Amino acid sequence: MTDSLLSLRDLSVNFRLPAGEMTAVDRVSFDVAPGEVLGIVGESGSGKSQILFSLMGLLASNGRVSGRAEFQGQNLLALSPAALDRVRGVTLSMIFQDPMTSLNPYMRVGDQLAEGLRVHRGLSKAEAWKAAVAMLDRVRIPDAANRARRYPHEFSGGMRQRVMIAMALLVRPALLLADEPTTALDVTIQAQVLDLMAELGREIGSAIVLVTHDLGVVARLCDRVIVLYGGRVMEEGPAEAMFDAPAHPYAQGLLAATPRLDDVLTPRLGTIPGTPRSGGAMLPGCPFAPRCTVKIAACETTQPPLAAIAPDRRAACHLTKAAP
Ligand SMILES: Nc1ncnc2c1ncn2[C@@H]1O[C@H](COP(=O)(O)OP(=O)(O)OP(=O)(O)O)[C@@H](O)[C@H]1O
Ligand SMILES: [Mg+2]
Question: Which domains are delineated in the chain?
Answer without folding.
Answer: 6-91+173-275 (3.40.50.300), 102-170 (no CATH)
